[in-house]
TrEMBL record:
Pfam families: Band_7. This is Podocin. Belongs to the band 7/mec-2 family. The chain crosses the membrane at residues 34-60. The keyword Metal-binding does not apply. Keywords: Membrane, Transmembrane, Transmembrane helix. Residues 60-219 form the Band domain. It comes from Sparus aurata (Gilthead sea bream).
């Protein structure tokens, strides 16, 4: 979405600006003296040689970088000042420069299922997926040896630490919030590597079989109790309706309703219907204490 792209670009710009401040504050000072002068002399001599033999050496000093790539150039072992080169065509000195190309596209990797013990001592297996991208190629190349492996290992440990601080109920009901907290923890730890963590999602939660059976039994018992409560409430409403209907009938109407109910009963071998006069029933009822 355009809005989402603008927000991501703003976050990336803020991220790079913050890293620049960190470089200025904690960066190592370049050594001066004879070696720096020697490097400048070699660079000038190489540039003069390239200019003198340009038709022959021009094709050796040109390199093309794709739109989604950036080139970090090491000249005599030091990173050239300024931002990484690219995209497009740029020039370099083949015998003095070493180029490392960095891909800026979003990388997605799956965290293999991790054995996690929750805060209420419930073991479960959890796997997740992480989306990140490099926003500062120079830091990505100079500060971490294997960025992909480091980010992958950091995501595994962060997943276990984040889920271990929550109960099983919280994990099942607050997956979005837990993923957001994990994303913030990854961002705080990996921003010094020039990485911007864009999204973290919990994929699957695997519970022990015995715990699954207990939860299924609990859910079934809750459903049965709810069904019985609904049936009981219906019977109460029906009895109240019958009571209200009977209170509005006259003795003659009540007697006719009684006879109609007897006629609707089917007499079979197992059912015997005996009709009694209502006066006899009234006499029995009147003699009851």
């Amino acid at each position: 979405m355009p809005g989402g792209n603008r927000v991501g670009a703003v976050c990336a710009d803020e991220f790079v600006a913050e890293n620049v401040k960190l470089h200025r504050k904690h960066g190592e000072r370049r050594g001066g003296g004879v070696w720096e002068v020697l490097g400048a002399v070699l660079t000038l001599l190489s540039a003069a040689f390239i200019l003198l033999t340009f038709p022959l050496t021009g094709w050796m000093c040109a390199k093309v970088i794709q739109e989604y790539e950036r080139a970090v150039i090491f000249r005599l072992g030091r990173v050239i000042k300024g931002q990484a080169k690219g995209p497009g065509l740029f020039w370099f000195i083949p015998w003095l420069d070493v180029i490392q190309t960095v891909d800026l596209r979003t990388v997605c990797f799956n965290i293999r299922p991790q054995e996690v013990l929750t805060a209420d001592w419930v073991p479960l297996k959890v796997d997740a997926v992480v989306f990140y991208r490099v926003v500062d190629p120079s830091v990505w190349v100079t500060r971490v040896k294997n960025g992909y492996q480091a980010t992958h290992t950091l995501a595994q440990t962060t997943l276990r630490a984040t889920l271990g601080a929550h109960t099983l109920t919280d994990i099942l009901t607050q997956r979005t919030g837990i993923a957001k907290r994990m994303e913030e923890a990854l961002y705080t730890a990996s921003r010094l590597w020039g990485v911007l963590v864009e999204r973290v999602e919990l994929k699957d939660l695997t519970l022990p079989v015995s715990l699954q059976r207990c939860m299924a039994s609990e859910a079934e018992a809750a459903r049965r109790a709810r069904a019985k409560m609904i049936v009981a409430a219906g019977e109460v409403k029906a009895s109240r309706a019958l009571q209200e209907a009977a209170s509005g009938l006259s003795p003659v109407a009540f007697h006719l309703r009684y006879l109609q109910s007897l006629s609707s009963v089917q007499s079979t071998a197992s059912i015997v219907v005996v009709s009694l006069p209502t006066e006899l029933l009234d006499m029995f009822l009147s003699h009851q204490p």
